[in-house]
What does this fold into?
Amino acid sequence: MSEHQELAGLIWSIAGALRGSFKTSEYGSVILPFTVLRRLDCLQRADDRTALDGRLALELGDRTTSIFSLAHEASDPAVPVGGPDLSGLVLAVIHGLPADLARLLELLDLDSTIPRLEHAGLLRQVIDGFGALDLGPSAVTVSQMGQVFEGLVRLLMETFGGEPAGEHYSPPDVTGLMASLLLSPDREAPSRAAPEVQIYDPACGMGGLFSAFESYLRNSPNPAIMQASGQEINAQACSITRSLLLMKGADPGAIAFGDSLSHNQHAGATFDYLAAVPPFGAGWKSAQADVTHEADTLGFAGRFGAGLPRVNDGSFLFLQHMIAHMKPVEDGGSRIAVIFSASPLFSGAAGSGESEIRRWILQNDLLEGVIALPDRLFPHTGIPTYLWLLSNRKGPANKGKVIVLNARAHCSTLRKPFGSKRQYISDDQIVEITRLYAQAADGFSDAETADNGAPRLLPIEYFGYQRIVIDRPLRLRFAVTDAAIAQLEETRVLESSQEGGTLLPVLRSLSGETQGHFKMTPRSHRHSMQS
It folds into this structure.
């Protein structure tokens, strides 16, 4: 076990004191913010102030009050009776933090958690537990602190099986695959490996994608610094992402709180790489008024010019939002990785919002590839998922074409299920999927004879179809014969009707005189064909 895993386990052990007073799923509301508070406290008191990130050192300033000494001050007999209780003292210190740090912790709802801890008689114990930890820069580097915090988030998820916070958490194997597929073509080529890259996630959840991208960039053949930007609608998840970046020495201020669809807080910005795992099948009713207004008034000058999907699935809204934040080709262009359920592949008939969006993406040659992922990869759902890759800077070999790869078999079985997650993609399997995809991107195109599981490079025309409506007269034909009359009598349909007594003799007379044939064209009949 590595040192950062041991430290994460040590911090998590403090949660044992919460048992009985807090639900298991609530442990994170105590452990994560107190880890941030202790790290900030240790950084502020570091002898080597140059070990701090410059901007963070400026924000922390020269404050001397520490919540980790307040427990002893509150129990000092010299403190007048009737003075503020311990929770009041702690909250006063937190509210006195610089504005950016105070807002970060505010989203973690410490105003309710800290009084609850004191009411349960646990606040002093939790403070003492964290106060005994050395999280200063000489003991824990920035990189190690980031890994520790990632470990805590993972322990939080594993403790209660991935529900309900699993909706805001993407497993490391999934985010690792996305980072590899999106970054490897550029990081392997020194001429395209910029020293600093901008990553954007409009549904960043608990920051899993940022962790995967930062790790890949740090360990790639041509290392780079990541500049992370994003937005998240869930307050706690947003604060965890901000905290994660802060622990890594990055700027948490670029993570906005709110709905990306209705309130785009990165309007006008463009990024090198964009990645997301939007909520599967989530509706956009709450954002409908703002989204519809933007689509109607701005068209392609806004984000949703290609069309609007049905209100019960906002997948294509997230995708159009990401496309709108791509860099122009003349500025280097961008690539996108996004994971969807199966629905965006086929939902909506010709002419529908979904179909028009797909047509616009294909006709503008933005879709680079679609990968069918293994089943049971996510802790909160077992539905089939697909990884879409888009680019406005395709290579010559795959212009006008789309890579299709079936990667369902590239997985391993977990020893212990994690919520709905039963399978994972190993590091070796990530390398293999990336290799197969790169093989197609380099020009492999034997679409008809490729073995099952091998990549295929298909013309974009393969993915389109037309709906043809044919109107023609409806022709009904019947013959009056003895056999037909006998069959009608056997059904006894006419026995109960007054007309039946006169109709049958008429039909018999017709049958006896001549074999009559009649045609009727009472209305038109519409046939619909899709091809």
Notes: The chain has three domains: 3-159, 165-465, 468-530. The two ends are 57 Å apart (CA to CA).
